Amino acid sequence: MREIAPVLPAPANLTVGMIGVPQDADIELDIRLEAVMEGVLVTGTARAPLSGECSRCLDPLTSEIEVGFQELYFYSAEDAAEDDSLLDGELLDLEPTFRDAVVLALPLSPVCGEDCPGLCVECGVKLAEAGPDHRHDKLDARWAALQGLKQGLDQGPKSKENHKDQEG
């Protein structure tokens, strides 16, 4: 058994939607390599910084993620199934295993806080900054045509009186 703890730069495209690991950010790995009958069993954890934006209010956010992973790297293709990982001499490619662990652990809808109210659907202002009295008058679309008719009637008699004054 062998244990190593390298710090490596993050590969590109470790993201989902609105959050991810910035490219070339330092990733701290704690890895244990064990020789087994079929190959080498790799068990480890990875800690990486996250950067993105809140899915509710669109503010930038940063955080950290820690994920665990485990993969068996086979000595030969004869022992392995089609999708299994193989050793290349004494080398093994840990990136696909690491990538799968990180991407699957990323939140699909990251939030800056559980109590984040988000944005107003009418005007887009941040509700946390808008205050409790923020609201919009909602007109029922079924009555909108009558509202226009009412405004026309309100203006109608006044315009007729003005027209009579101009004639006389």
How would you summarize this macromolecular structure in one to three sentences?
This protein is α+β, with helices and mostly antiparallel strands and 168 residues long. The protein is 23% helix and 32% strand. β6 (39-53) and β7 (60-74) form a beta hairpin.
Structure description:
This protein is α+β, with helices and mostly antiparallel strands and 168 residues long. It has 2 domains: 2-105, no CATH class; 140-167. It is built from 3 helices and 8 strands. It has helices spanning 95-105, 127-130, 144-167, and strands at residues 2-4, 7-9, 14-16, 19-21, 26-35, 39-53, 60-74, 85-86. A hairpin with a 6-residue loop joins β6 (39-53) and β7 (60-74). The radius of gyration is 31 Å and the shape is elongated. The relative contact order is 0.14.
Q: With helices defined by DSSP (H or I, 4 residues minimum), what is the helix count?
A: 3
- Low-confidence residue ranges: none
Class by SSE composition: alpha+beta
* Record field, number of beta strands: 8
Radius of gyration (CA) equals 31 Å
In what range is the share of β-strand residues? 25-35%
State the order of secondary-structure elements, H for helix, E for strand: EEEEEEEEHHH
- How would the global form be characterised? elongated
User: If you average the pLDDT, what whole number results?
Assistant: 85
- The rounded distance between the terminal residues' Cα atoms is 109 Å
Helicity, as a percent range: 10-25%
> What composes the largest sheet?
8 strands, mixed
